[in-house]
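Supplementary Methods S3. Complex input for the magnesium ion-bound model.
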Amino acid sequence: MARILQVRDPETIRIAVEALRRGAPVAMPTETVYGLAADATNPAAITAIYEAKGRPRFNPLIAHVCDIEMAKAHAEFSPIAERLAEAFWPGPLTLVLPLKADAGIHELATAGLATVGLRAPQGVARTLIGAFGRPLAAPSANRSGRISPTTAGHVAEDLEDRIDLVLDGGPCAVGVESTIIAVDGESLTLLRPGGVPVKTAEEAADVKIRRNDGGATGIIAPGMMRSHYAPEAKLRLDAVDVRPGEALLKFGAKAIAGEGQASWTGNLSASGDLREAASNLFSFLKQADCNAKAGIAVAPIPMEGIGEAINDRLNRAAAPRD
Ligand code: TXA
Ligand code: MG
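Predicted complex, serialized as structure tokens:
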């Protein structure tokens, strides 16, 4: 069973750095979701991440840095990339940038691509990267295909004895993964909606962000398969009523027809606050999944702001499984 260490304990960072130096992956809280971190320059450490998650190796990992300086040692920053990093780092934005020829990030982490996904996270993750002194490759700390964890308890349940250490920093404030934007000179492409709303990023960059249509010329995030974030129960989105035995995920104060028939009810945000809804999304989905007798009905969620990321994750959770 994984050992859970509290981040407020002054010994925790030292113990985590020792584990990282040995090449062991460590689960760490970030403001988005918990990540399973390992030395991005060490092939054995990266292999240990893929194994613990059961993740396909063609799917590259985000390298987490403590600041723009560390990021610039590994990737080429165009002026627009720099603007975005300055506006949102540390924070829930990942930039996919051209990899520098002499970057130390191992090709197992980038899956051999000519680009690298870089993000400077907030909080204890940042402290940990600073103390370690090198980028940390970190996918979400769940088994591949499962819902991303937003508490240390979720990580421990999902990865059990596959990892040694989980740093517990409480529930993640943002609750959905980072927004991923590919930067090609002055052109920006959205690879994944996430914690930074697209409109907010467009305003900071002063450039329109292209939606990724996945077409022949489109850049893709290899990990964005349609069916992902898979709960066991079937999801019914934009539900205006509840059928007997369904678990119900509500949003806002509006009553839903047949609510009394729900096997379980959770309100993502009774006041209709999308940021609160995002922070509750994954833990409520897990609870709904445990308590559903006949699927999960999900009330409509507006597409504004972080609502785009919420709807993206719900659509993936509802997609047919292969
Ligand atoms: O909020 C987050 O981004 C969290 C926390 C832990 O930082 N991490 C996360 O990692 O969600 P992961 O591995 O679950 O998702 C990263 C996504 C994958 O879909 C991967 O294919 C894509 O980023 N990605 C990484 N590097 C890329 C690259 N060079 N080009 C295109 N897509 C890339
Ligand atoms: Mg993930």
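The first strand starts at residue 3 and ends at 6. Residues 30, 32-33, 35, 59-62, 94, 96, 110, 113, 115-117, 119, 121, 138-140, 177-178, 180, 191, 221-224 surround threonylcarbamoyladenylate (ligand 1) (CB under 6 Å).
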